[in-house]
Amino acid sequence: xxxxxxxxxxxxxxxxxxxxxKGAFWLLITVVLLRFMTYWLPIPFNYRSYELFSxxxxxxxxxxxxxxxxxxxxxxxxxxxxxxxxxxxxxxAGHQQLVKKYSKVIGVAALFLFxxxxxxxxxxxxxxxxxSKIPINVxxxxxxxxxxxxxxxxxxxxxxxxxxxxxFLHLPALNAGFSLYERMAIVVVSGLLMVSVSSSSDLxxxxxFALAWMVLYLFFLQVRWEDLPGPLxxxxxxxxxxxxxxxxxxxxxxxxxxxxxxxxxxxxxxxxYRQIMLVKIW
Length: 282
Description:
The chain is mostly helical. It folds into two domains: 1-51 and 62-100, no CATH class; 102-282, no CATH class. Helix content is 71%, strand content 0%. It has eleven helices and no strands. It has helices spanning 2-18, 20-40, 67-87, 93-101, 103-130, 146-175, 180-196, 204-223, 238-245, 250-254, 257-281. The longest helix is centred in the middle third of the chain and has 30 residues, at 146-175. It is globular.
């Protein structure tokens, strides 16, 4: 914890002295390097001995090989999005001219990245249903446990990260002069391209739903854009905004049909991956 506080202080100083891009660059390099070190080395301790980091509870892929890994990755991703959102204004004059020159290209790339991040978040939430043994049906209250709490903490930080992404990934498109319908068209084309190359046929319906939701979300951003520069809780429409952010995230996990979906499709397909992870650990 103290190491992260120290890193945050150093990165803040670099941003103030050298500018936003150098600060963001060193933040990404530091976070990625330290995170990959923790995958292979017992830094700062051997947390693999804790049940939170057991693949028996949850395992999706190499990056999210346990619920604890997913929690750490989500917190680090929130840290990065928080930094970019509130530090991106510190851009030098030379960089501003470069951004202005290629504003259209940057705007399209930012919207494509927004669609990509949204689809990845939907995949992560879906994996919490398919690839875990965590009881997430809130209707069955007495069957919930500590891992359910951790899961909803993860979903909370995914939602907050998505709110931060919504601001700084749509800002280049607005600065480029794209209208609402142009932004919608770019996001739809990007989303359909990702769905067409998706390797998981089980998620096609969910991703199509997420794509339709993104179009509605763009309209919501157009109406309430002045709320995005600040935190979500500071918005006058906080309750409505948090409910609107919910469809592709917690609400899907709370659905009673998720347990049956996990039983019929997910667990049988993902179990070989868990066996591989257990062999590596033991």
